[in-house]
Amino acid sequence: MSLKIGIVGLPNVGKSTLFNALTKLSAPARNVPFTTIEPNVGVVPVPDDRLEVLRKLSDSAKIVPTTIEFVDIAGLVKDAHMGEGLGNKFLSHIREVDAIVHVVRFFENADIIHVNNTVNPESDAETINTELALADLATVQKLIQNAEKTAKGSGVEAKEATQKLAVLKRFESELSQGNPARNTALSEKEQELMQGVALLTIKPMMYVANVSEGQLRDYNSPHPNPLPHMGRGETTLPLSIQIEQEIAQLSEEEQKIFLAEYGLTETGLNRLIHAGYKLLGLVTFFTTGEDESRAWTIPNGSTAPRAAREIHSDIERGFIRAETVSYDDLIAANGYAAARAAGKVRDEGKNYIVKDGDIFNFKFSV
To answer: Which of 330, 300, 314 is nearest to 362 (CA)?
Structure first.
């Protein structure tokens, strides 16, 4: 499945530098506002050590990781919802992604222009969050007007409009207070009703705190100073984006030495990719054999036939059963035959909910 994470923030906070480090591309990253106009897009593999283990176990010719698409979206400014700084165009780019990484500048550097001439992470984050909420509020208020007209009629459409209206007014209440729409708890039925409503603040979001080298050492020390409170429960990941760009140029061995100096076991980029994966609510299942060992992405809570669809729609349509073994059981048995002999390979039906690390061999008829 194709998944997109948009990288947003004020101008000059490090979005394009982060994007370049993530994707190994060279999007423009200069010390001027609005360097990025059209969004840059890059596909990033999700690091997963289990793939190499499976490759060795199955003697696979290759491994195929799952991927996430990152989108470098231009910097937003105050009053973006009113079109300031090409705001309407940039907001439309955010509507097209599945989740948001919000980059906030924490480092001080007089040589790098700050759009507000002062570094204030909480204020900067609030500027972006307010713009997204105001853009959504305008969208919701238009939808409320339309739903009110339809609700005055009769029949199925009027009934559905009445139900939508109740949810939209709850959104309006949250957004009017500057809160994101994702704060509004929705039932399964309400989620279905709102499926076509493209709100910016309903998307899952996390923060990247772009810190200096000194701040990074502090945040990774045994007794770190806490990060400022950035949002309402969202994850905040401290990264020195400049250092991450340097690490990305090193060999694997050099990276380990570099990271050890900061008390880290993996790059911040890998932690960000994994955090983004979690943010999207995804799990990984595997297929493995002589041709390839491959990771596949599906939403958490998916059934076995839904997993089969990722490989081919024909497998979902003709699904009979899923021959299943967990990654841990397969590795403990040191192979498929031994796992089967130990009773760890099982047949799962159409209602089976996929667990992260499941390895499948789908049985189907065309």
So the answer is: 314
Whether the Cβ atoms of residue 122 and residue 111 lie closer than 8 Å to each other: no
Q: What is the pLDDT of residue 19?
A: 87
Amino acid letter, residue 143 = L
Query: What confidence score (pLDDT) does residue 364 get?
Result: 96
Positive or negative: CA dihedral 27, 32, 37, 39:
positive
DSSP bridge partners of 359: 286, 325
Q: Which helix (H) or strand (E) holds 284?
A: strand 282-288
pLDDT score, position 76: 63
Report how far residue 23's alpha carbon sits from residue 70's, in angstroms, rounded to the nearest whole number. 8
Q: Are strands 67-72 and 4-8 parallel, antiparallel or unpaired?
A: parallel
**Nearest Cα to Cα of residue 120 among 104, 96, 97:** 104
User: 161-186 burial by CB neighbour count: b if 16+ within 10 A, else e?
Assistant: beebbebbebbbebbeeebbbbbbeb
Question: What span, in angstroms and rounded, lies between the C-alpha atoms of 163 and 144?
Answer: 11
As a dihedral over the C-alpha atoms of residue 139, residue 126, residue 71, residue 240, rounded to 10 degrees, the angle is -170
Nearest-CA neighbor of 14 among 29, 35, 27?
29
pLDDT number for residue 113: 60
The pair of three-digit structure tokens given for residue 323, joined into one six-digit string: 């021959």
Residue 310 makes CB contacts below 8 A (sequence gap 6+) with 1, 296, 297, 298
The H or E element spanning position 100 is strand 99-105
- Rounded Cα distance, 212 and 106, in Å: 7
**Taking the chain (366 residues) in consecutive chunks of 10 residues, what is each chunk's mean pLDDT?**
85 85 59 50 90 96 93 69 53 86 84 67 87 90 93 88 93 92 90 88 92 80 65 80 86 87 82 89 95 96 97 96 97 94 96 97 93
